[in-house]
Amino acid sequence: MVGIVDVARAAGVSTATVSRALNDSPNVSAKTIELVKKFANQLGYVPSATAYTLVTGRTRNIGVVMPFIDRWFFSTVLDEIERDLVDAGYDLTLYNLHGTGGTRDAVFTKLLPRKRVDAVLAVAVKLTESELEALSNVSKPVLGIGGPIAGSYSLAIDDVAAGRLATEHLISLGHRDIGMVGQVEKDSHLFKVPNQRRIGYEEALVSAGVKFRDAWFKPTNTHSIAEGYAAAKQLLGDPRNAPTAIVTSTDELAFGAIMAAKDLGLRVPEDLSVVGIDNHDMSSFFNLTTVSQDVRGQGKALVRMLLEVLDGEGEVSLPQVTKWPIDLVVRGSTSRLRSN
Questions:
Q1: How far apart are CA 292 and CA 325, in angstroms?
Q2: Which domain holds residue 279?
């Protein structure tokens, strides 16, 4: 097996110089770094992770915590984070929190504080003061997606603005009878994203002078297609008091609403306009008008922020919360209100 001594002998330098060159030390000339890396590649030398950690204090491993891994948003952002971390030469350790019980406590009090990761990325997890303190005590930087993290860097969309934009689109098309199907998030350990989107929906109605009707908001426990279908069917079932348009807090709920409308003999968008939020990978298949939040772009941006923090040596020019842009993507599920 090729070792650092073999690379040093081939390049005609000391083993210490090889170590510094492979870590791109500023104390080694660019010519020497190029020479060392050339011989290391030719000989098939693989640096020891243990040796790297002893020299630098770093593991080149990032901890990622998220409450779910089987939902579209989380699996999509995780896929992008992993791709970009690997490209940057980092490993990833995933911690699935499974809600709020003992698993979460163990992750933050026992697993993450160990010297196994260089930093922590929190995906849509609202960290408590004690969790942040545990990581701060061992100097683990924390960055996140989904909402603010005290004393750390994060990026998030304006979910109130997303709900408002989706609703304003329907209002601009002449709709006034606008219902909503939305998840009601009750977990205090998570950012209440769907609740914020409902606020935006209500704000848009009030601003346009449109009456908000409690009966036209149908809550769901999750944002699954099945729950969207069931809620929309109840909302549309009364032909004397049914809305002409529906906003949903996620695209998956919108997929269910479109299917429910069709099962009730309604045409989308001729009889019912539907708009979602997220720009899910399947949105184009359902021809769904939606508010895009570019989930993959968020994952990529989070990794860029992380690398700036790790490489910045105290010189970081990031805002505490980076506001991520949203865009309306108009497809075929919405149209102007048709007069009877």
A1: 9
A2: 159-293
For residue range 285-307, list pLDDT tens digits in order. Answer: 999 999 999 999 999 999 999 99
Residue 329 lies in a domain: no
Task: Assess whether 170 and 276 both reside in one domain.
Answer: yes
Give the whole-number percent of the chain exceeding pLDDT 90: 55
**What are the structure tokens assigned to 49, written together?**
């992770």
**Edge-to-edge strand list for the sheet holding 142-145:** 91-96, 61-66, 119-123, 142-145, 153-156, 321-323
- What is the predicted pLDDT for the residue at 57? 52
**Beta carbons of 138 and 176 less than 8 angstroms apart:** no
> Which residue reads 């009878």 in tokens?
177
- The answer to whether residues 159 and 200 touch, using CB atoms and an 8 Å cutoff, is yes
The answer, yes or no, to whether residue 85 has pLDDT greater than 90, is yes
Do residues 175 and 287 both lie within one domain?
yes
Rounded CA separation 248/216 (Å): 12
Same domain membership, residue 209 and residue 138: no
pTM of the model: 0.82
Strands 153-156 and 321-323, how do they pair?
parallel
Report the number of distinct structural domains present in the chain. Answer: 3
- The H or E element that residue 238 is part of is none
Contact between 191 and 124 (Cβ < 8 Å): yes
* Structure confidence at residue 54 (pLDDT): 43
Q: Which residues pair with 63 in a beta bridge?
A: 93, 120
* Alpha-carbon distances of 99 from 72, 73, 78, 105, 138, rounded to whole Å: 17, 16, 18, 10, 24
Instruction: Evaluate if residue 138 carries a pLDDT over 80.
Output: no
Which helix or strand (DSSP H or E) is residue 120 part of?
strand 119-123
For residue 78 the two structure tokens come to 């995780």
Q: What is the DSSP letter of 167?
A: H
Residue 304 carries which side chain, given as an amino acid letter?
R
